[in-house]
Amino acid sequence: MKFLLDFLFRVLQLFTEPYFLVFLAIVIIALLKRKNKCKNLRIGVFIVTVIMVILIGNGFLGKLISGYLQKSYIRISEIKNTSAQNPIIVVLGGGVVDIDNTEKLHTMSYSRMVTAYQLYHEYRRNNQPCKILISGKGRGHISEAELFSEDFKKMGVPDSDIIKEDKSMNTYQNAKFSSQIINRMNPSSLYLVTSGFHMKRSVALFQTFGLKPIPQASDFIDTEITIFPNSYNAAFTFVMLKEVVGIWQVQLYNIFGMNK
């Protein structure tokens, strides 16, 4: 059952890839062209393709998805008075890039780092203990957790307040492996730091493993309504579409108890 659903969602993820959608439309039109009786259907496929390009490229679809993914976290992400004792701040890795054989954190990682540090600083300036758990291995030679750790130390966070979870390769594993560490530490409260568009799925997965994180979205993305389609809107729309499919996958797997 799980294998079948994994395959289904892998196929569904293809429909969030722009090149695949264009390729699919071309193939369908080419196949239909071989049958003269399908002229109206070819025209229909072409019109649907054009409409989708417009909706994705002019920012309309992205604007709707952006609200669905992020609206709930805009106000809750504002750092308020910290009163919880012995909290853990979980920061999810945002990827690693390799430039000229030098591995650096992806640009999304830095907003997450700043948000985590701001929250950590609120506790420390009141002389309250606080830990930062960095979750993520990434696909480079150096783990995201290690790269995050190096930068946190430069910001003044002592090594004793940093916990590295450097095995996870995706959000599901972020939640699974982090939960094992968190349950052993039994903190009074748990904060989860990641990008706004990524928060809904992340929270759902952490809840799957019995945790109740307080979301702290580090950054938000949105599209701009434009007359003419552009690549900016298209890029962010497809990123958010992938998240929507991922959320559906989490919800369905939870129904069948397949996320443990």
TrEMBL record:
Superkingdom of origin: Bacteria
Annotated Pfam families: DUF218
InterPro entries named among the record's database cross-references: Cell_Envelope_Assoc, DUF218, Rossmann-like_a/b/a_fold
Transmembrane in keyword set: yes
GO cellular component: plasma membrane
This protein's UniProt keywords: Membrane, Transmembrane, Transmembrane helix
Membrane-spanning ranges: 12-32, 44-69
Any one GO BP annotation for this protein: Gram-negative-bacterium-type cell wall biogenesis
UniProt cross-references to Gene3D superfamilies, sorted A to Z: HUPs
DUF218 domain sequence ranges: 88-246
Matches recorded under PANTHER family: ENVELOPE BIOGENESIS FACTOR ELYC (PTHR30336:SF4), INNER MEMBRANE PROTEIN, PROBABLE PERMEASE (PTHR30336)
Protein's UniProt name: DUF218 domain
